[in-house]
Design goal:
Strand content of chain A: 15-25%
Largest interface: A-B, 43 and 43 residues
CATH topology of the largest domain in chain A: Dihydrodipicolinate Reductase, domain 2
Family (chains A, B, C, D): Belongs to the aspartate-semialdehyde dehydrogenase family.
EC number (chains A, B, C, D): 1.2.1.11
Structural class of chain A: alpha/beta
Order of helices and strands of chain A: EHEHHEEHEEHEHEHHEEEEHHEHEEH
Pathway (chains A, B, C, D): Amino-acid biosynthesis; L-methionine biosynthesis via de novo pathway; L-homoserine from L-aspartate: step 2/3; Amino-acid biosynthesis; L-threonine biosynthesis; L-threonine from L-aspartate: step 2/5
Protein name (chains A, B, C, D): Aspartate-semialdehyde dehydrogenase
Oligomer: homotetramer
GO molecular function (chains A, B, C, D): aspartate-semialdehyde dehydrogenase activity; NAD binding; NADP binding; protein dimerization activity
Largest sheet of chain A: 7 strands, parallel
Number of domains of chain A: 2
Chain lengths: ~375, ~375, ~375, ~375
């Protein structure tokens, strides 16, 4: 067995950073050695720098790591750097890391819309990582050093949406129209300050800043195709797929529920049974590659009338599996159904880990 | 000032019955004298029969009323009987009451789909009560006695949906396509057993039995027209209005939030400003009639990006006003917006009271 | 009828400030004219400065008041200034106001422990306001100008605790030992940031910084006596009353529940019936003075086995009444019972208003 | 390795029964073969009989087990029968099973107060199982057949309370006075109907029928001693330990929080550090016996000021570990602290499994 790859985490004291640390504990491929955080935390032991707020205990191995500032120099031995940085800091820091030749897998939104930055839901579009392969090949041919790169994790609500769409468009062609109303968990908003208790107890907040635009835009990138030379992603044009999102924050700790309706371009549409079969039989590429965190069952199609439910179903396949229920015909578009995904796993830190596993399986790191 | 009309309540110990009693306390038009409940409760003082679960105290006047069985004879002096009966009992009891010449305003679903039974959201379609007027006229002409009748209150999620649609179809013509995803409060499910705590805490239940069908069907009746002779309601045909509902139960005590999208038949559609103006300026007929419970402002169009919210906005106009927010263009249909209504007021007992006030204003009782 | 007294509010944009404004709307004795907030808000109309988060709409009268900085000069026409300032600012600002001859009723903790500052739960110890009377008399005799003063509102969890204790100690003598475990609502923590949603959903936080010490200390001041010359309050000595508090934050929006046990110094203790009668018959001095906000029933002793409950009972007497239930013998001390009080009314802004009404009734303002 | 012992579950479709099934999945010592439920379920496959409501999926092995009625004959090959029956049925059924020579580990309350029935918190008083050993010895000597017996699991709130008390009384002698206020999760109330959502959302219910009496009584049995001949348990007399409980239901899914105060008989009491050390170093007998489910750390003494919290700490040691925090001196008794335990694990089904593991380790089954 090969030695584990050394990895690091940026924004290690934040909510996404804490999740990266948990998911990297006892990971078979990666060894977490470098933790970066703000200058306020740098120089302290991690256990003293962090306000740990996870349901699992702070792993022993992480306690005594001395937190460093987010400078590329400190991460130079890392095969991958996972970034849980806030958008306010991610822009410049991730750029510095990339320019220093490092591989960054980022949960921040800053570079998601760059055409040469893969925006990845690892159970959906790992083929977009070929952009990285192309960069590596080009550098090798040019005889220049190994280039750094950034891969972006999608927005959490987008991840849940596109997972079941992928096998559907593969099997039945383009989805022309799509509406999605989300009921999103509060863990997605982080800790500081996150969603205030008085704002969400016995309440719904029918607005999440920027979220609807992200879902509408990112969906068309993730389901888009690579350019011929594998150097960029070409978003689905608006006329091939129009998406409308309505995003709500609900009093749920983890797990985004999405009520979606959609219409295929090709008519007549498939049957309900074909639809369900397509999702049920979908095996994501990460599973085929044997990645450690890949879900055994990518999409769970549930037949009980009142499922999926976040409290009961969010942890399928350790949060890497997506649950779909109530698949039925829609009087307005073709079909409607309910999708549930774990926002901090497949929608954030967990996706980052699986992306890195795929990068490793493809020898891109 | 005229004497108050004597009224009664069926199903008086249940959750809807308790709300009827509260709303009838110190009512200027009605005096509640008769409380009907199951044989188990009959013969007891109301205070001893009820498990009172309201935020207001059990009104003094009701405490010592001796509960009667749900037999028409006991209610014969009532100008109106409000029914909060469960569907299991409402069918036969309400029929008996009607046949005994009584006026019944019912929250039960049993007779909602009868063509000659008005299905009323009092801030939307009180004109459908002309069916009652026509019955009374016909009886008078025929010299037969005053006929009994049933008026049905709509389903709670339907009430919130149709309220803002009414001024829109009045102003801009038919709505051809409509999708609605609801986030419904648990108070709508009653007490026994209602929604279990363990099912709804930190959770969403993406299913409410029969609810989606009710919303899709009732909307087309409420927005339908009277037949020429005012004897029946003609539902909007499916091709004039296709409705698709997705209903969810959420951990909110009171107040249904609905995320809706819709497309007008007439194109191009109105502007956003026209849309908002139409809703803001809508004055319901009950307000024009001067009914006691009618909302001062029927529809509140909110401009803050994160409103309406159930905890903050459900009590507008004592729960008789409906709040609309986030009115914006929709990439798939024409517009999308968020609607909030108080499910136990305009969606249940409160609607019944306002219907009775309208019946009184029209001299139908 | 006399003209209303002009009043002002400090910290007007915060959660306590917003509650002061609501409670002063259409108040028969007071007219709110001056709103003070941070320099960031000063100069703006209140409607533009505030992030209004109340279940009632922002009152019309307040919308166009131009917010001023918290300088005494701007409040000089105010008979009373209500302070909802954070402790970080209250110390210096309230001192300046007092020195400028203004009457300040403050929700901040800064001056609560000064021996010549009355710490008031208005339904419990308004007689401590005689300290103010003594100051006014002294100034009059000395021929100096009307002196300013500060009156402090108690901590919210203390208010609920001492309310039922007052008639008990009046009737049955000192309470020697008292334990209280609180289940406190999140509204008490304010908005910015307040309690985070992810910290309190499906959770209990068994700690509120400083709260236990406040309860243990303030209880002994509020139940203490005036010095002979009415110039200071003498706390109950520790040996006359030992209090132990355990404070928890729970997922409840409004209403503090407290499970208390206590032992009287005089043995044998009263009977259960005497205990309940004493609380039920207690009429607070504010009610006797005819104050507008005084509760009709100060303490509601409930006989149902599962009451009081915050959602059902917190609004008794508009939140000025305290509910007590489950009064029973205690195997360890003498008695145990459950107390419920509305933390933002009798435990914060509401108490301030009632204190001012008492000051007015006593001609101290 | 020995063959696994065959076991059965009574009340298999209920909430406790479902938990037994999950905990017996892939258990190294036990093989679950027989599922008993009501006549309504008997004859059906388990998957068709149950309304499965767990966060883990229904285990494959259980799906096709045909449910049987709760008759001893059907369970005769079982080394242990776990009972999750409701109290209404447990009395007669468990008696029948015992008389048929079966070993029953029951979560029902029916036999807890029998002097010859061990009432066991497996991390606290497994030595009380010697009553079973004594019965077996006696039968062997008498040459009669292997006798059946019942072992009772304690009430969930009692389990959390006694866990930290055990090392304290072992180290420092009797606890003379103890007060406990509980904040109990709703999962303890089961499904049908359990706690209603509308009763617990944004609310506290300060009453759980019978619970306080159970805590006060059971604590004195569990901490009591065996009689000289090991045939019965002798409760601690009231004068050696007086317990006062106040029980509340709170909006938490799993995990009971208890705020306790206590006073030792021996004065002066130990120091805070001695107290914490005693709890931290406690190793339960089940761990020494090497039982599969025994917690690695029986009691986790937490030093952070705001812990334990149910959402963060309830799953320590898979729910078999108990967390204690805020250990501090108490102005009224000697000490106060907060205890958190997982009510469905150490307080119900999980305790039953660990009891059976201990019975096996002691060769009592």
């Amino acid at each position: 067995m090969c030695a584990k790859k050394v990895v690091g985490v940026l924004g290690a004291t934040g909510s996404v950073g804490q999740r990266f640390i948990l998911l990297l504990t006892d990971h078979p491929d990666f060894e977490l050695k470098v933790l970066g955080a703000s200058p306020r935390s740098a120089g302290k032991k991690y256990v003293d720098a962090v306000n740990w707020k996870q349901t699992e205990l702070l792993p022993e191995f992480a306690k005594n790591i001395v937190v460093t500032e987010c400078k590329a120099e400190a991460f130079k031995e890392c095969a991958v750097v996972f970034s849980g940085l806030d958008a306010d800091y991610a822009g410049s820091i991730e750029k510095e890391f990339k320019e220093a030749g490092l591989a960054v897998v980022s949960n921040a939104k800053n570079y998601r819309r760059e055409v040469d930055v893969p925006l990845i839901v690892p159970i959906v579009n790992p083929e977009h990582l070929e952009i990285v392969g192309q960069k590596l090949d080009a550098a090798q041919k040019a005889g220049t050093g190994r280039p750094g790169f950034i891969v972006c994790i999608s927005n959490c609500s987008t991840a849940g949406l596109v997972a079941p769409l992928k096998p559907l468009v593969d099997s039945f062609g383009p989805i022309e129209l799509l509406t999605a109303t989300t009921l999103q968990a509060i863990s997605g908003a982080g800790f500081s300050p996150g969603v205030s208790g008085i704002d969400i107890l016995d309440n719904i907040v029918p607005y999440i800043g920027g979220e609807e635009d992200k879902m509408e835009w990112e969906t068309r990138k993730i389901l888009g195709a690579l350019s011929d030379d594998n150097s960029t992603v070409v978003n689905l044009p608006d006329e091939q797929m129009r998406v409308s999102a309505q995003c709500n924050r609900v009093p749920v700790s983890d797990g985004h529920t999405e009520c979606i309706s959609f219409k295929f371009k090709n008519q007549p549409p498939p049957s309900l049974e074909q639809l369900k079969k397509s999702m049920n039989e979908y095996v994501c590429a990460a599973a085929k590659l044997g990645c450690y965190s890949a879900p055994k069952q990518t999409i769970h199609v549930l037949e009980q009338s009142d499922r999926p439910q976040p409290r009961l179903d969010r942890n399928r396949d350790n949060g890497y599996g997506v649950s779909v229920g109530r698949v039925r015909e829609d009087p307005v578009l073709d079909f409607k159904m309910v999708v549930l995904s774990h926002n901090t796993v497949i929608g954030a830190a967990g996706a980052g880990i699986l992306i890195a596993e795929i990068l490793l399986a493809k020898n891109f790191i």
